[in-house]
Write a structure and sequence with these properties.
This protein is mainly alpha-helical. The protein has two domains: 10-128, no CATH class; 135-204. The chain has helices spanning 37-46, 66-79, 82-90, 104-128, 135-139, 151-160, 165-169, 173-204; strands spanning 10-11, 29-30, 52-53, 56-57. The N and C termini lie far apart (61 Å).
Length: 205
């Protein structure tokens, strides 16, 4: 679970069903950094996902660059810093975005939206782009390519589209995903055709 690690104090409003963690003194500022893991999980569980924060609406994640989604964002997740994640998404869309204008509920709602959107992208890739490698390919060491991540894919697309690799990285995620899905479908068709042809040749012998 992601946590806010800066010492920023954010103005809070009363939130239904979250009174269990309301300050007894009823102060106007809620120090998000002081939330325990249990309190954060409780807030997150009942949060309503929202792509709106501090008066701005974010684009869908698949509209952002492929490099940001598959290289930059995973690194930000490792830092475990909600604010850095949110700012990285919003500032590239709105130059005047100011996270200090968001209350702590908006931060949690927005983080839940991010995580749900990101999970959808992961599930789509797993469903449409992944497959069990051929045993011969495995024995040849195809799994060693995993350490290079998406770089070989981007390089191949750059060659196919006659583009610079850096330009391809900057394309929207959905553009690269669609290309990878198309290539996967054609690859599956070719594999099935080759296997059918091989079986036909064997039967004629």
């Amino acid at each position: 679970m992601f946590r806010f690690v800066n010492n920023l104090k954010i103005r809070s409003r009363k939130l239904p069903r979250l009174d269990k963690i309301k300050s007894k003194s009823g102060f106007d500022f809620y120090e998000f950094n002081n939330l325990t893991n249990e309190e954060y999980k409780f807030l997150y569980e009942y949060a309503q996902p929202s792509n709106i924060i501090a008066g701005y609406a974010s684009k869908n994640l698949y509209e952002l660059s492929f490099k940001f989604i598959r290289v930059d964002l995973p690194e930000l997740f490792k830092q475990n810093n909600d604010i850095a994640i949110i700012e990285s998404i919003m500032i590239q869309q709105y130059r005047r975005f100011d996270i200090s204008k968001a209350d702590w509920k908006q931060i949690i709602y927005f983080m839940k939206w991010i995580m749900q959107e990101y999970e959808r992208l992961n599930k789509a890739e797993k469903k449409h782009l992944s497959s069990e490698p051929d045993l011969k390919m495995v024995s040849a060491g195809v799994n060693n390519m995993d350490e290079f991540g998406y770089r070989p894919v981007i390089a191949r697309i750059a060659k196919d589209w006659n583009m610079n690799i850096d330009e391809v990285w900057k394309l929207p995620y959905h553009t690269i995903y669609s290309k990878m899905k198309e290539d996967k479908i054609w690859s599956d068709i070719q594999d099935k055709y080759n296997k059918a042809l091989e079986a036909e040749i064997k039967n004629k012998r």
